[in-house]
Amino acid sequence: MREIAEGFAAALKMIARLDADLVQIVLLSVRVSLSAVILASLVALPLGAALAVFRFPGRRAVVVLVNALMGLPPVVVGLVVYLFLSRSGPLGFLGWLFTPAAMIAAQTVLVIPLIAAVARQSIAELWTEYEDELRSLGVGPLRTLATLIWDGRFALLTAVLAGFGRAAAEVGAVIMVGGNIAHVTRVMTTSIALETAKGELALAMGLGILLMAISLAVNIAAYAINEAARGRAAPEKA
Amino acid sequence: MTRPTIRFAAAILALTALALPAGAAERFITVASTTSTEQSGLFKHLLPVFEKKTGIEVRVVAVGTGQAIKLAEKGDADVLFVHHKPSEEKFVAEGWSIKRLPVMYNDFVVVGPAADPAKVKGMKDTAGAFKKIAAAKAPFASRADKSGTHLAELEFWKAAGVDAKTASGQWYKETGSGMGPTLNTAAGMDAYALADRGTWLSFTNRKSLEIAVEGDPKLFNQYGVMLVNKAKHPHVKDKDGQVFVDWLVSPEGQKAIAGYKINGQQLFFPNANQAGA
Question: Is A124 exposed, middle or buried (CB count within 10 Å of its CB: 0-12, 13-18, 19+)?
Fold first, then answer.
């Protein structure tokens, strides 16, 4: 238990010193997870909206599948992405393995189901409100999806933040396709795993506290942007 | 577009710019190696010297020997640097590399709880100590991950005439993880474990663990280096990879290896010129 208290001390010391290695690790973590979440959102938000709006055979099966994939173990995603990106795999020619690009790819795959499932839920609620109006106006399918995503953007932020949380917190996928290479693919979570492996528990705990602080900062920023945007959007509607 | 829309678009654009991967990498090679070399801090000591001299960045993927060999066979590394001679010789025999070069050695130690329930402390015969641990049913934490250390451990059980696998889940704990995590487990449950001395010396979460058996010639742990065969994987960076291999076995590289110390203790002993190593 002593390590937890020492972890706070270690975290404070790290922040006070702010050495170049740590800054690099933190920036890479944020860069990789943010890229993954943006890419995933580009796929997952339209996918979630489509599942909420369109009726087609097998829709329920797809919804259940997407929900189930929220529980994808990161290490399995890592393994599959590794096999694709390996020089012996179909995408080996890209030379992405053991680079941040591979880590972004793995985290993107990891969080698409989560963002899509949460997005589907909130857009389904919006759809019950909008359905009659949009239908009576004769709005086309693509335009319908765009309208729902835009009008539901504040609720959808929660889906995107959940995706960011899952991406930033996972270690199994990035360690597999990134290789935890110092100064190249080492991120917060893989550093924590490495320091724990070395028995440096207080240092590992300190990094963990720092990771939580960063996650908190991202969420505060998102909340603030959300509030500000809501404040601007409201009078416009009125 | 309305003002909020423009702001929203600008925010997304800014985020994307921040998130985009940095520019293409410079000159580098990828080395598949073991956790013992990484976690003991050897690479952190060695690589800056090499990089400064040659301008070639060395990217180390540190995993167990089994996984490192698999990575190299799949063409995901340019150089393989591991420690299990029979596996390395098989790697060369199968054509994945043209040649294996001995680089250095360190040694394994058997660590155990200070209370020493199996009464093995101070023994010089590892197989004998393993036999006593099994007889006492004292907890033993095994890597169980096909790493070089795990393969060495299995050879000691064989020499002791003990089938430890049958006690798996009882006194024989198969952690399936790296050296550090296995030592963390051993420290947590007062278990014995086989560890490489490098990782042990740099390991800080020892609790009551201490060295129980050391100095047995059979505890000797040889490291070898191999350049992945370009004929098998045409994209292998053979020129820069060869520069690294040559440097490791050169007088300069060997001196750098000998110069790595923790608390004044030398961890790895260069022996590139020793016949048959």
Answer: middle
Residue B1: pLDDT above 60? no
* pLDDT per residue as tens, chain A (238 positions): 788 888 888 888 888 888 888 899 999 999 999 999 999 999 999 999 999 999 999 999 999 999 999 999 999 999 999 999 999 999 999 999 999 999 999 999 999 999 999 999 999 999 999 999 999 999 999 999 999 999 999 889 999 999 999 999 999 999 999 999 998 999 999 999 988 888 888 889 999 999 999 999 989 988 888 888 888 776 654 4
Preferred mutation among B7, B12, B26, B61 to probe A, highest tally of A CBs within 10 A: B61
Residue A144 C-alpha, separation from nearest chain B C-alpha, in angstroms: 18
Q: How many domains, chain A?
A: 1
- ipTM of this complex: 0.80
Domain range for residue A63? 2-237
B16: closest chain A residue by CA: A35
DSSP string of B196-252, one letter each residue? EHHHHHH----TTEEEEE---GGGEEEEEEEEEPTTT-TT--HHHHHHHHHHHHSHH
Q: Within an 8 Å CB–CB cutoff, is residue A100 touching chain B?
A: yes
Whether B227 and B101 map to the same domain: the answer is: yes
CATH number at residue A195: 1.10.3720.10
Give whole-number Cα distances, B18 to A34, A132, A164, B125, B228, in Å.
8, 40, 15, 58, 36
Q: Quote the number of domains for chain B.
A: 2
Query: Are B195 and B98 contained in the same domain?
Result: no
CA B66/CA A3 separation, integer angstroms: 33
Report the predicted TM-score, pTM, of the whole model to 2 decimal places: 0.85
Residues of chain B contacting residue A153, judged by C-beta atoms under 8 Å apart: 8
A97 part of contact set with chain B, CB < 8 Å: yes
CATH code for position B138:
3.40.190.10
Residue B20 counted as domain residue? no
Q: Which of residues 101-140 of B touch A (CB under 8 A)?
A: none
Q: Which residues in chain B have their CB less than 8 angstroms from residue A99's CB?
A: 21, 25
- Identity of the residue in B19, B178, B187 whose CB atom sits nearest the CB atom of A38: B19
